[in-house]
């Protein structure tokens, strides 16, 4: 029996998330998990549990009114487990990949990036835990004070809402106890700012946070290629998204139109940050212009940083592909960045992730369109990308989708959250060198 159990890290991770989803489904089906005191339908519980564990945020029922306080607590525990588990698993798998590298390469990487070694497994878990707790507690207290001071809430309720949104933001889960997400706070920078801070910290990824912490006192420290691509790539995407959203939506009466200029920029900035994986919405997503929906497709598909709580194909993957294209245009043999050469195996991994992610989106869209042909295609596309990239934003059609379409979204959330990470791991550690190579041939491309 022991020999039949999966031992490959990718399989263990996939099954662990699947088991957590199953347990979460059973817990949410308990009568006291719902506000009505009746057992939730299995599909509702399964969809919600999958969305929580995969830190997506798509919902077929209103979180604040459908689920009891106990049910909401279960949800918070599920997306906390999902976010913490993914950060820890991805970081530990990064160490495992590093162990498979040659000794000289590992020493070079460790000396330049201050990377952890395989002997620091406990340190990895401890650092992820410390970062998670400190960030969530700080943001929770900040939000609780703001909610208690500006809303008609008791301090116990303010603390609960603050904690729920802080945990949801750091884990990029997108769940909210309010039916309009954070639209009621669209002009309140004291609420949106801490939420954005938690979203960004959780979405940068553990390797980046570790490197920044280690080098916090060394102003002359050289960032690794991964950290450079993640930070500057994320900043570029946020700026491009903010400016584009403001230009398109500034006169839209359903979104930015009624706001003052400063509030318009605040709402556009928050929407741009949230669009890449967080799932909170300060604007009515269903009222966005078509151009803004297309922009969301791109931002959601790219996602955030690796080994973090963000989804998508990851910032490093996207910008590495741009480097590959730029290298090919210039006719160079090697992909280079800041005095470093990007290895061919990493390039192949990035291309594989992009192609398979595109295939998953195409298959999901083809499967869902016949079941919901009464819904505009751009909204279905938005839902599919949001599910696969574990973003959680919706144009408001999730609850109206038929059961079959919701099952497709469940599969996309699971594959998008677990599949890309396990695929990256499998590609990285299953590289078996061969003692021979076939003759080279060049097919005509283009």
For this entry, give a set of tags:
63% helix, 16 helices, 446 residues, mainly alpha
The number of helical runs is 16
Please indicate the count of domains.
1
Query: Structural class, please?
Result: mainly alpha
Main sheet? 2 strands, antiparallel
Please tell me what the overall shape is.
globular
Tell me what portion of residues adopts beta-strand conformation: under 5%
How much helix, percentage-wise, in residues?
55-70%
Radius of gyration: 22 Å
The low-confidence parts are 100-119
Sheet with the most strands: spatial strand order: 1-2
The ordered H/E elements are HHHHHHHHHHHHHEEHHH
Beginning-to-end CA distance, first to last residue: 51 Å
The total strand number stands at 2
Mean pLDDT: 85
Describe the structure.
About 4% of the residues have low confidence. The protein starts with 8 loop residues before the first helix and ends in a 17-residue tail after the last helix. It is an all-alpha fold. The protein is globular. Helix 4 runs antiparallel to helix 6. It has 16 helices and two strands. The chain has one domain.
SSE layout and pairings?
Elements lengths: L8 H20 L13 H12 L9 H4 L2 H32 L2 H11 L7 H30 L4 H16 L18 H16 L1 H9 L10 H25 L11 H15 L14 H13 L12 H16 L4 E3 L2 E3 L1 H25 L8 H12 L14 H27 L17
Antiparallel strand pairs: 1-2
Helix pairs in contact: 1-2, 1-4, 1-16, 2-4, 2-16, 4-6, 4-7, 4-16, 6-7, 6-8, 7-8, 8-11, 10-11, 10-12, 10-13, 12-15, 13-14, 14-15, 14-16, 15-16
